[in-house]
Amino acid sequence: MEVKECNDLTEENQFIVDDVSKIIKEAIENSIGGTAYQHNKVNQWTSAVVESCLCQLTKLQKPYKYVVTCTIMQKNGAGLHTASSCFWDNNTDGSCTVRWENKTMYCIVSVFGLGI
Amino acid sequence: MADEEEVVDEEPEVAQAGSGDSEAGLSPVEAEKPLAPPKYEVRPRLGHKFQAQNVKAIILSTMKEQLTDRQYRADQAPRWAKMISNTVRQRVQDLDMKRYKILVQTTLLEMKGAGFKCGQRCIWDPETDYYTDELFRNDTIFCHTVVYGVYMY
């Protein structure tokens, strides 16, 4: 009888926060870097950021399900707080949140990766 | 005489061939037994699916409990957001939906007239994975909570 090695802790099965963080930052820069807040364009921007993140994440070719959320808010002096709570497997699953801002808006992107 | 010897030689070969056939005959008989049906489930059964309506009710009641009659305060808001997230997650876990991983995300905003847009995309299995979300508003606070349920194969 063969004894198979446990694959759960190899690189391929771990959520690597640094790689994902880089992907998110690039996606934001490419979609909204250098633009000012415009109410009629916000729909397009959130879609663009999220689609581009997902596209790059699937190129990593890992056995993962992804959930990506993007929040864009105009800078108005108002406060914004985000919290998340998760019930998962710490060995294989992870999340990464990136906060980005320019002169007129804030952008918060969260990526959750869940191992299959 | 020579013929007899040849005949004698052939018989043991025939006997061996016969026994070979009988050994080969054992395995086809075993393979004919029906295989047991696969027991590992890759889809949730009826009754074990994600309870979206119950989760929606939990989210709304938690937000109402925590935030009714409260005004936005910058020092308290992070604590409220974390408390709502943890409470919703604990209550959804108490629903005991087997093999579901739960993600809860809460966003608390101060209502000051700022424009706000939230979007999401997921790469998952639409037959097994779901999400529900709810909004809560009062004069100074705007709260949005979303719960994702992701099936584990």
TrEMBL record, chain A:
Its main location: cytoplasm. Gene3D superfamilies: Tctex-1 (3.30.1140.40). One of its GO terms (cellular component) is cytoplasmic dynein complex. InterPro entries: Tctex-1-like, Tctex-1-like_sf. CDD domains: DLC-like_DYNLT1. It is found in: Cytoplasm, Cytoskeleton. Keywords: Cytoplasm, Cytoskeleton, Dynein, Microtubule, Motor protein. One of its GO terms (biological process) is microtubule-based movement. GO terms for molecular function: dynein intermediate chain binding. The keyword Cytoplasm applies. PANTHER family: DYNEIN LIGHT CHAIN TCTEX-TYPE, T-COMPLEX-ASSOCIATED-TESTIS-EXPRESSED 1/ DYNEIN LIGHT CHAIN. Belongs to the dynein light chain Tctex-type family. This is Dynein light chain Tctex-type. It comes from Vanessa tameamea (Kamehameha butterfly).
Automatic annotation (TrEMBL), chain B:
The gene is LOC113392490. This is Dynein light chain Tctex-type protein 2B-like. Belongs to the dynein light chain Tctex-type family. Residues 1-13 have a biased composition (Acidic residues). PANTHER family: DYNEIN LIGHT CHAIN TCTEX-TYPE PROTEIN 2B, T-COMPLEX-ASSOCIATED-TESTIS-EXPRESSED 1/ DYNEIN LIGHT CHAIN. It comes from Vanessa tameamea (Kamehameha butterfly). CDD domains: DLC-like_TCTEX1D2. InterPro entries: Tctex-1-like, Tctex-1-like_sf. GO terms for biological process: microtubule-based movement. Residues 1-42 are annotated as: Disordered. GO terms for cellular component: cytoplasm; cytoplasmic dynein complex. GO terms for molecular function: dynein intermediate chain binding. It holds the Pfam family Tctex-1. It comes from the Eukaryota.
